[in-house]
Amino acid sequence: MLTNTESARQTIGLDSGIPKWIFLQLLESCNLRCKMCFEWGDNGAYKEKPELKKLDLAVVKKIIEDCSPARPYYELYGGEPLIYPWIDEVLESIKYHKSRVHFPTNGTLLERHAEMLVEHAPERIWISLDGPEEINDAQRGEGVFQKAMKGIRKLYEVRESKGSMYPKIGISTAITPINHQHLERFYFESLDMSMIDCISVELQQYVTQERYEHYAAVLKEEFHVQSAPIARGFISSPEHFSSIDAGNLARQLKLIEKFCKDSGRYFNAYPKVISEENIRYYFNAKWEQVTNMKKRCVFPWISMEINARGGVTSCHNFYDLTLGNVNEQGLLDIWNGPKYKEYRDYLKKQLFSICPGCCLYYNEKPSQ
Ligand code: SF4
Ligand code: SF4
């Protein structure tokens, strides 16, 4: 008979020797240049890359096969995942091995891929949209909103015509100084909610200069990593968010949350508890005062991320600290290897200073 502790360890995957949640950054390229993007935006770290990479399909298939005994949950990232030339084969392979998969997209290529997406039926697709047309396009580029709307309609029509339940169609919105006043109008006037199954809203992720410098110093001293250019793409400051009216934002978010609850739609928010105070703390970089903030993070024990260069990291989007490379070594050897242990040992004692800039910080489990 298992003790409670042993049972809990098995439930969250600590003993399986295989990660339960795998993020694959399929490629670095994107067809957009959204202003707030930490990869391709105003402060984006990818703009300086001399060459853009993508994961080799054979490597991706090997990962999916090697991890199949644990049937992990997958999230696909980019850049823009729908640009990845073998996206259909990746979805097919995940489905074949009976795992679930979600991914975000900017929506501009949905119309072209609608048939393929209904055929391979990932569980959920999140279309990233930031507000009504003029607001969205001010952040993401002219014409993006209309392209995404056409894509959503096509995907919905193909799915309905085939009598399929999947993919579920979600809208994901990052709240920034540009769109914070327009969420109510966006969700209740600009969108045809009859086609939308789920909504995710998150306050724009950022780290302060001070926290970034602390993180960069820890990487140097503890892990011998000399620079942290990716995390630099997240740097911002409370001044940047000073125009945000926390009361009005909380009111709008609560309306959206209630709408989802009343209509049976899935709703997700980061941070989890929506209140005027929490929004104010968050945008004033007082993360420790936000409700339910964590003292530790379990994700290094259950999830891993493979970036487009093959680098393995445990922290979503923070690719400066890699713990191995799948182009050179088996994924499970890395997961169970000494570098991962050293890294977990550090995180047993404390979080990183950049953790509040990581969406996993606000998550307890894979989104439903
Ligand atoms: S679509 Fe996504 S990856 Fe591409 S620039 Fe916009 S936020 Fe960045
Ligand atoms: S919250 Fe921190 S430790 Fe956890 S995954 Fe994110 S960056 Fe890593």
UniProtKB/TrEMBL annotation:
Signal peptide range in chain numbering: none
Residues annotated as domain Radical SAM core: 16-239
- Any one Gene Ontology molecular-function term assigned to this protein's record: metal ion binding
- Report the InterPro entries cross-referenced here: 4Fe4S-binding_SPASM_dom, AdoMet-like_SPASM_containing, Aldolase_TIM, MoaA_NifB_PqqE_Fe-S-bd_CS, Radical_SAM_PqqE_MftC-like, rSAM, rSAM_sf
Q: What is this protein called?
A: Radical SAM protein
Cofactor(s) the protein needs: [4Fe-4S] cluster
The keyword Cell membrane belongs to this UniProt entry's keyword annotation:
no
Its keywords, alphabetically, are: 4Fe-4S, Iron, Iron-sulfur, Metal-binding, Oxidoreductase, S-adenosyl-L-methionine
Origin species: Paenibacillus rigui
Give one Pfam hit by family name. Answer: Radical_SAM
- PANTHER family linked to this entry: PQQA PEPTIDE CYCLASE (PTHR11228:SF7), RADICAL SAM DOMAIN PROTEIN (PTHR11228)
